[in-house]
Each structure stands twice: as C-alpha cells, then as structure tokens.
Amino acid sequence: MATSDAPLEIGHVALTVRDLGTVADFYRTALGLEPLSQDGETLQLGTGTRTLLELRRDPASRRGSPREAGLFHTAFLLPARADLGRWLIHAADTGLRLQGASDHLVSEAIYLADPEGNGIEVYADRPRADWPRTAAGLQMASDPMDYDGVLAAVEGSRWAGIPDGSVVGHVHLQVGGLEATEGFYGETLGMALTVRYPGANFFGAGGYHHHFGTNIWNSRGAGRRSPGSTGLAEVVLRADPAELAAIAARAGVSPDTRLALQDPWGTAITVAAK
C-alpha cells in the first residue's frame, strides 16, 4: 500500500449519526465493513482487527449543513485496481447510487454517500512510480475514469467484502479558508503540502499523495463548527513514536501516547501512537 510506510497516516474516522442501525447496515452491505466491537451507542466497523469507521449514535443531533466546515468524504483505499473493479460490479449489482468517478492521475476513485449524507470515496492507487510530477511537484487532476480498464482488471473474481489490507487512505475536509490549513495540517501535523488545486490544498506524509484534502468549494468563509451536529466527529491518526513527540512539541502540548487536537474550524484530530 502506498501509504503504509508513512510516519503519520489515517487510523479511522468517527461519525455522529442519528440512525445507527441504518447507517451501519449501509456500510456493511455497500462496502463490506464488518462489525468489530460495540459499546453502548458506539459501533466500530472495519476489516480484520483494524477499525476503519466508528459510528456514534445521537438521535437528537442537528443535521449538519453542506455549507459548514466538516467532512467532504472519507476515502477507503483498496489494495489493488482489481479490487476497485470488483467493488464497482458489486455497486451495480446491488443498485448503489453513485455520485461520480474520476481519474486523479495518482489514483482512480468512485464517489457516493451514506444514508445521512456523509461523503464516501472508494479508490485504488496507481503505483507510486507512475504518479506524474513536474518541476512544480506532484500533479493531480479530475479526469474521466477508465471504467473499461478498471473492470478488465477484475479477471473473473467477485467482490467478497472489503479486502484485508484496506485502509482509510485519506480524509477530505471542508474548511473555511485555505491559508489556515497550511498552519495546522502543514506546520503542526508536519505534513507536506503536496498539491495546490483550485480551491483546495492537499497534504501528505511520507511521500504519499495526500492523507488530507481541504477545500472551500462549498464552505468558503465557514467559521468554527457548532457542537451537536451529525457528520464528522473525529479523525484519528496513527503516528510513529518520534512523529508523535514532534507533533506534541509543535502543538505546544504535553507528550503522550494520544494527543487531542483541533483544526482551526473545530474538527477533532486525534493523534495516537502506532
């Protein structure tokens, strides 16, 4: 996996939902995530022993606005292009409503949303050696995806749930402004600003194309998030010990095995030891 050697990577995403049963069933049937543990009103889903998604039930929560800072999408990274093709066939067979697909040059991606409107990306990376670069740096785009090529990679096998080794490859966020993202995601978390895109900045660690996307396409000027709404509750990062200590120092907090931070819009970013 192209992100597996990064000193800082996405561990899992937590969402606040009104209807835990309906949303959980969607992720189980649509993506093949398996329930791993449940504690009262919280359910962890993932693959193997790795949690990728946590759902927190709050039936009284206010529905988040698409204009607010928060989640744009959670991106589930599959191990290979063939897995993406298997999932695409599964999506067609089960009547999933897709919202689009793109060739980002570094990856191929398909988009949809869960029953409460939380954005989802399902994608596969191209080999890192094939990522296009110029003198200005890494190049990304939103070109039409080669559906035929993705389906041809399947070679007859069928989707049997999200494959072992799948991870949350990146999280794409809505923010109020791009300049402040460089201070938090770039300077505090220490991620490289890999790509500047119209209305968006992308940040990655360890040479990965991005672990965070940040955009103002719907949320330009948004202020801090109001508590008690549905949608993104927390992003949990996994860090090497040295990286964890460096982040604590840059954030001006006491070093620990788990750091509770917030970005400039009040999104909870937790950094935990690998």
What does this entry look like structurally?
- This is Glyoxalase/bleomycin resistance protein/dioxygenase.
- It comes from Frigidibacter mobilis.
- Residues 9-125, 167-274 form the VOC domain.
- This protein has 274 residues and is of the alpha+beta class.
- It has a single domain (8-273), classed as 2,3-Dihydroxybiphenyl 1,2-Dioxygenase, domain 1.
- Helix content is 19%, strand content 38%.
- It has helices at 20-31, 81-93, 147-152, 179-188, 241-251; strands spanning 8-17, 34-39, 42-47, 50-57, 70-78, 100-103, 107-113, 119-125, 133-134, 137-138, 167-174, 192-197, 200-204, 212-215, 231-239, 258-262, 268-273.
- The radius of gyration is 18 Å and the shape is globular.
- The model has no long low-confidence stretch (mean pLDDT 96).
Summarize the structure.
The chain has 274 residues and is an alpha+beta fold. 19% of the residues lie in helices and 38% in strands.
Feature tags:
about 270 residues, alpha+beta, 2,3-Dihydroxybiphenyl 1,2-Dioxygenase, domain 1, eight-stranded mixed beta sheet
The total of beta strands comes to 17
Give the CATH class: Alpha Beta
The CATH homology group name: 2,3-Dihydroxybiphenyl 1,2-Dioxygenase, domain 1
**What is the radius of gyration computed over CA atoms, rounded to a whole number of angstroms?**
18 Å
Share in β-strands: 35-45%
Name given to the CATH architecture = Roll
Percent helix, as a range, is: 10-25%
**What is the end-to-end distance?**
17 Å
Total of domains: 1
Order of the strands making up the biggest sheet: 6-7-8-5-11-14-13-12
The ordered string of helix (H) and strand (E) elements is EHEEEEHEEEEEHEHEEEEHEE
